[in-house]
Amino acid sequence: RKRRLHLNQIGRIAEGQIVELVEHPPESQAARKGLFRAAARPLRDMRPRHLVSYSYLISGVSYQTAQDITGLESQIRLERLVAGQPASIKYDASNPSDSILVADDWSGLR
Fold first, then answer.
1. CA–CA separation, 56 vs 25, rounded Å?
2. Within 13 Å and on the Cβ side, how many CA atoms surround 43?
3. Domain coordinates of the chain in residue numbers?
4. Digit-coded pLDDT (tens) for 31-86
């Protein structure tokens, strides 16, 4: 969340596009116990995880990455999110591979 807030404050905006939206089921109880079946971590949010892949071009270099948007659904209409859809991306000018598509109070989706 800190990284997302930082990028929202300092990020430059570039044009990109949605590559895909993938929904992952919540982790199973067994997966949360770890490699050696140690004690389980505190219960996590059991909602499905939503991962949005997107691509963008900065100074002739193409980037493709993804953002877990779980918890930011209020900023997005998932039913209207489709591959190829144009989007604005906020990125760190000193590290263009560091980017976001959605923040707590900003969305690059149209």
1. 27
2. 3
3. 2-107
4. 555 556 555 555 556 778 889 999 999 999 999 999 999 888 777 777 788 999 99
Maximum Cα–Cα distance for the chain, whole Å? 48
Angstrom distance (rounded) from CA 32 to CA 19: 29
Strands (E), the chain: 12-24, 49-58, 61-68, 86-92, 95-100, 102-103, 106-107
Determine contact, residues 74/14, Cβ cutoff 8 Å.
Answer: no
For 9, the token pair is 């404050």
* C-alpha to C-alpha distance for 30 and 80, rounded to whole angstroms: 34
* Tokens 């997966």, located at residue: 31
Q: What are phi and psi of 74, to 5 degrees?
A: -65, -20
How far is the C-alpha of 89 from the C-alpha of 99, rounded, in Å?
7
Question: pLDDT of 84-107, one tens digit each?
Answer: 999 999 999 999 999 999 999 899
Q: Which residues are CB-contacts of 17 (< 8 A; sequence separation ≥ 6)? A: 54, 55, 56, 84, 85, 86, 87
